[in-house]
Amino acid sequence: MIVNKSYEIASCDDVELNIKRDSLLEFRISYDNECEIETVLFVVSGLGGDADSSYKQHLAEFAVKEFGVAVVIVNYHCIGNRPQVGSVFCMDRIDQYYLAAKCQEIGIPLSGDLSSLESYQMTQSILLGLNQTLSDKKAKGELPDDYLMELSVTIQPTKNEYQNFGIMQAQDLINTLLFIKNSPPFKVFGANTDNLNIIMLGSSHGGYLAHMAAKIAPWLIDGVIDNSCYANNPFSFIGFGKEVDYKKYYGFSTTLFFNNINIFCSDKTYWTLNQNSPNYFSEAREEIRYLLNLDHLKIQSGYPKPIYVSYHSVKDTSIAPASDKAELYKILREFGFDATLNMIKDESEIDGKFIKNLEHGMNMSIKSLIKKELSKMIKKLKKVKKEPWNQKSISYKSVDLIYKFYEMDDKINLAISKTKQ
Has residue 315 got a pLDDT over 60? Predict the structure, then answer.
């Protein structure tokens, strides 16, 4: 019988920005209580449809029935950062500046303290009122019928979280794994959790986090299955792109909520491009999140090597450039990893079921990816004898900082130090 269990645990604080985390980490495990489990599959949600809870539950039960694995789905830090999964809109000081400028352009007066727009209720109220004012102006012929006011808006994630991007999210995956290994709710084959095969699978940002988890704790991850993850940091998704150009660097834009207003939505973040701020997203902060860092990949290659399988569209040129992905997998193979990249090159490979288009993500369902790759990876892993690994820490020099990830007290911890001059 399939059993579903939900947990809430304390995970990690934000060591980089010295912010204590208020929210608990939530995750769900699905498994057959009559089976001895050899493989644990983490299905790592990205941004968009695969973050929907009912879809995730369907995936979990499918994989448990078909492959006899335990499935773990983690609501990692800042996962609730899109409207379809509970986020709301607010306006920070940058958004407020653009709002005032746009209203002044067409003669709409604004009154009151704009700082109140940092709350969802006030933002919603003023945008609804502004949308109606724009409709009235169009009806009077004061504005063209096709006029859209272009505004910057901040996404306020659920649980009052924010976009740290990559590091805390990968730690959440590993902390979930360590919790399960320490207290497995299911029967473990051979009664030794060190022999469990751990596979992480995800699409786009979910695939990126699977790669990041393998980077920060390679001794714990046996396989990564990915669709269309980015190898480089997507400037638009971290949240501070609006400091440069809110209409160029943003998470998503839509007229769905306000038909006269095109809102350009950026994640709430405490990172900034202001070099005088302690929260400056420096080169070191960027490098540790960069999957293509040659020095970091060389260090990782000295640890147990996960098996990598990935799919990517050659036409993916903006969100996750295919050239970066090809370079990443070339380097992985040069360092001795079993790394397979399936580059989808043209329309002849679109079958309407597995590959549906050549855009980012190829509209590929996670279920299709599981069907195609999970059993093959499980068979590969069964042929690999797992050797004990006692060095449960890894350090990466990142420009002027050293990031040390280490396992202690059933958690993955992070310590950051300055490099010696």
Answer: yes
pLDDT at 306 over 80: yes
What pLDDT is recorded for position 51? 57
Q: How far is CA 9 from the centre of its chain?
A: 20
CA dist., res. 115 & res. 98, Å (int): 13
The amino acid present at 231, given as its one-letter code, is: A
**Residue 117 CB neighbour total at 10 angstroms:** 25
183-214 per-position pLDDT tens digit: 999 999 988 999 999 999 999 999 999 999 99
The CATH number of domain 196-205+218-232+290-386, selected from 3.30.200.20, 3.40.50.150, 3.40.50.720, 3.40.50.1820: 3.40.50.1820
Residue of 362, 411, 419 whose CA lies nearest to 21: 411
- 150 φψ region: left (φ > 0), alpha (ψ -120 to 50), beta (else): beta
CA–CA separation, 247 vs 263, rounded Å?
Answer: 9
Tell me the chain's radius of gyration from C-alpha atoms.
Answer: 23
Predicted TM-score (pTM) above 0.85: yes
Evaluate whether 403 touches 419 at the Cβ level (below 8 Å): no
Segments making up each domain of the chain, as ranges: 88-156+236-267, 196-205+218-232+290-386
Higher pLDDT, 369 or 421: 369
Contact 301, 218 (CB under 8 A): no
